[in-house]
Amino acid sequence: MVKIKNQIKKICAFCLACTFPVTLLSCSEKKTVSLPGQPSETEQSVTEQIITDAPAKPQKLTRFFDQVELKSGNPISDDFRIIGNTTDSIYCMSYSSADMCSYKTCCTNSDDPSHSGAASVVPDNREREIVQVDKEGTVINTYTASDCTDEGGRPYDIKILPIDENNLYYMVTKCGVSPDEDEHGISSYCVYKAGAQSQSVKIFDSQTFDYNYIPQSFCIDKNGKILIPMMDFTTNHTGIYVYGSDPVPEYTIECPDDNAEITYIFTGADNSLYCIERHESKLYRIDTQKGELTEVSDFTAASENTFYKGSCGYDFYYQNKYGIMGYSIPNGKSDQIFMNMDCDCDTFPSTAAVLSPELIIAVNNNFSDTNCRLCKYVKADQERLDELNSKQIIRLAGCLDDLSVTLMIQKFNSENDDYRIAATDYSAYSSSYDTNNITAGIKCDSDILSGDIPDILLPDSTMDIPAYLSKGLLADMNSFIDSDAQFNRDDYYSSILDAYTYKEKLFLLPVKYSSATYAVKTSYWGERDKWTYDEFFSFASEHPDIQPFDSDYRYMIFMSLMESYAYDHVNFDEHSCDFDNDTFEKILQFINDDTIPSEQEKSAEWTDFTYALKNDMSLMRYIYMNDIYGLHRMINLYAGENVSLPGIPSDSGIHRTVEPGLSFSVTENSDVKEGAWMFIRQFLTDEYQDGIIINDLPLKKSSLYKRTNQLCNDETLRETYDENGNPYTLPAVNLAERESFRNFMESPARSAICFHKIMIIINEESEIFFSSGCTAREAAVSIQNKVSRYLNEML
């Protein structure tokens, strides 16, 4: 029997990408067999992971950058990037999609069609030019990067090392396929000293290594030694190669961390050499005399960083998803240099050169066209800040992972004469391993419940929404809707608004959302559109020889059943719950039994689980219904006949669950409610709602009608699948399917956004049962006690 915890590990990557509320995943990684009634330690352990260099919450603007497009604007081509800088110069290089060299593209044998990457590598025979520009974007020099493409025209990877305006070095990483029969990857490195107009001189050419690895930087020390990060896949050694003029490294400096990857080597302000390890974001001092790395232990940051040359007292700058930071090694801390919210523009820097904390040169991709633009960001003086702060500030807080929010803030700020959004991006508090922003939700809870309350909140399922409601922190969004003459309720799905209504208060406005349900072959269940728990269990027991579900996402099935049960049996008003009963024990036992096939069982017995439902090897499927193709695919691909949508069983009869993809709340005590609604209502317009086309559903009916019509009428969107080695193209969507989808979208829905804390308790206590640490009865009693305590103490 494959236990729940093993299932969690198997589907971790999948679940983290889903919008359905399975955000409790990382909370179950710490297995603790505790006695019934003991308090959970989960949140304390998560809180300790908070990153300390996240942006501070704005009251008034203290920093702002004006964006100015440089006069040359586009010094190279439609697509280019900044690859380095000195004090007064910026170096750019053109690139294309083929430049983004991965293991697959570099190692593809184009003569072998079985290599999936072969068709995607487009030969590109352009000269690789490195263009040097000044602070105004004027071209100073052009360097032709030698030996940068292979015989097929595919570009090799190029890294540059500008020491000063007169000394530019660049390294070409050559990746390919070994000529022997194994066709394993090989790589080698060449270093050139650049001269103007194709006068580059090769100063080093390495031996060929039997693996593919593309270093992200290199360095030259004061003695002329070349340092290149290495990752030897044959020995699992990682660290740094140190070269003289010989193609074989003189020696290697190994990284003390297992599975490490050094991503950036640089010379600090003290002229010492340093490097940064990517996975743990550790900073090391390089001792070339002893051949050692010494950890500088007080550097911590998320791993998805781009590093830039330091200046003005900073040893290096690094760019992450919310802005640019400067790091000083002697001070051991990061300072905010530039946040994405610091500028009124329709985009933000992709690659940059930080010449000083007051001046940044950057490449921007304007979303209104496809071309790159070279811009500079100039820090505003006090007079400019006073002008901006003359507007009323609207404080917005939440995880700004949705790019549309960032762009809408910038648009609103540049166009509105009376109000200005000042945003706190709580996603900055979550590490790269916390993609569900659990840490961010805890930090936001802590700030809000301690009295630091914004005007607009972006709620998500990691926040303690019941506590917000019990304390009266959230305003009724109905008041804004009813007073807005341009808002017609009939234009929007009332079932979705009802799902986020508590005591007749619309506490959250979802501008887009996802929906999930169970689908069953009509020949098995009939055309009934709902079922109770007893009906669900009876249906499964009537077919003992058929697996209930056709996927191994056991944890997702468990969570959907538990969230449905919590919705029906937790009463926030009365601070009561009902988990100590036979029905709840049946749910626990249903998951603990082999009701859902494991990966091993499928590989041994199922030729293709995609068609298990069609081949009567399973009874139902868990599906996301985010457009009509979710239903169309279910009928024509997975089931091979009509399906019914009784959904997730419940006592209330509400059979589908919804989760907001993006939502807004206004706080009750905000004194800028009018401005807050002016900002939020931009997300309800046709322009925004019509643009919701991937993963989520629009709240506006007409927008979904348009999307449905396009999917039904555009022949080019018809999907083709491989069925037992034969191509199978889905037929056209018929009228019955459209009617069924329309009925589903109008049906009542429930949201689990208020049950995050409760699901943590259920998840932890159920794991004890699944690990044979207690009986189902004991788990139910423990969950009853702990949820009761939460309801009475926390609300």
Major sheet attributes: 10 strands, mixed
* Overall average residue pLDDT: 80
Class from secondary-structure proportions? alpha+beta
The count of strands amounts to: 40
What's the tally of helices? Answer: 21
What portion of the residues fall into strands of 2 or more residues?
Answer: 25-35%
Distance between the termini: 39 Å
Q: Using only CA atoms, what is the Rg?
A: 29 Å
Based on Cα principal axes, name the global outline. Answer: globular
Query: Share of helix among residues?
Result: 25-40%
Unreliable runs: 1-56, 96-126, 597-606
Give descriptors for this structure.
795 residues, alpha+beta, 10-stranded mixed beta sheet, 4-stranded antiparallel beta sheet, 21 helices, 40 strands, globular
Summarize the structure.
By secondary structure, the chain is α+β, with helices and mostly antiparallel strands. The chain is built from 21 helices and 40 strands.
Element layout with pairings:
Layout: H1 4-17, H2 42-47, E1 65-69, E2 80-85, E3 90-94, H3 103-107, E4 129-133, E5 139-144, E6 157-164, E7 167-177, E8 185-193, E9 201-205, E10 219-220, E11 226-232, E12 237-243, E13 251-254, E14 262-267, E15 273-277, E16 282-287, E17 292-296, E18 306-309, E19 316-320, E20 323-328, E21 333-339, E22 351-356, E23 359-365, E24 372-379, H4 382-389, E25 392-398, H5 403-415, E26 419-425, H6 438-449, E27 456-457, H7 465-470, H8 477-483, H9 494-499, E28 501-502, E29 505-506, E30 509-521, H10 522-525, H11 533-541, E31 547-549, H12 554-569, E32 570-571, E33 576-577, H13 582-592, H14 599-605, E34 618-624, H15 628-639, E35 643-644, E36 656-666, H16 673-680, H17 686-690, E37 697-698, H18 701-713, E38 720-723, E39 726-729, H19 735-746, E40 749-751, H20 756-770, H21 776-793
